[in-house]
Amino acid sequence: MKKLIFSGIRATGRLHLGNYLGAVKGMLELQADPDYEMLFAVVDIHAMTTPYDKDKLSQQTYEVVLDYLACGLDPEKSMLLVQSKVGDLHTELAFYFSTVITIAKMQHLPTFKEKVKQHPDNVTMALLNYPLLMAADILAYRSELVPVGIDQEPHLEVTREVARKMNSLYGLDFPEPKRFATKGEYVPSLFGEGKMSKSVEGSFINLTDDLETIKKRLAKTPTDAGKSDGKPASSGVVALLDMVALFEGEDKKNEYLKQYMDGDGIRYGELKKELAEAIYKELQPIWEKRKELEKKPDYVKQIIEDGAKKARQIASQTLAEVKEKMGLL
Length: 329
What we know:
By secondary structure, the chain is mainly α. The protein has two domains: 3-185 and 296-325, Rossmann fold, CATH 3.40.50; 211-291, Tyrosyl-Transfer RNA Synthetase (Orthogonal Bundle), CATH 1.10.240. It contains 13 helices and five strands. The longest helix is centred in the last third of the chain and has 29 residues, at 297-325. The mean pLDDT is 91.
């Protein structure tokens, strides 16, 4: 049987390099592999677990769909799902999962604690139950692999715990999904602190950015004097070198690192210019295809509806089995 890989991205803005290298690109490379089945989801309900703009949510969701398709998602080979299109199934399944996980477990998740600090006035039940909805997203399709960063491992462990308990208590056969690591699973923030994130303005490069915009974004990455007898001390320099490795190769990174450590110094203007051009070279086909898709809204909306129909068939069967096993009529 094919192994299903589930990738979900929150509808909080267009896809950036971190999303692309951390999940989308790796999955697309497997799109033609007969051993795998891909499910790309835009998890718009998840966007409601923290403060959001209700007037922009549907458009932001549509933008992510465009980005997926522009990156190369083939609706004939992979499933594209907007979460709210089957939200009734996912949220009901999440409720049944909530009966086997304690409040204490949810409150001690590091990701929950982090969000509490970020949004102290918006600590809602939706935020607390975020990992259970994520578990429902994944297990509704019996996904075995999930491409997420290491910071999401605690959430994935909740999904595995849910699977184990539902299997043990009710005789179900959910798989325990594993993290699917990709080459660029960690793309550093342009600030040099943490990873690239849509929630941190200025930390990311969008897939739709043109060459000049990419140059301007990289220009703001902090650097140091460019000379040292040891490893780079500036987190901005580390971030730049990591991105050089991703887009220009390890040899190029080592070349710059040697300049740094030998005391010759790195010419950051040159580094950033070459890096910007390398990034744009990879993104240009995506940028151009997206422009074409923007002119075909009916085509895109039909893909969304077709994906929802396929997903509903699978998720409804899972939900029906769970309800039967749990003793519901």
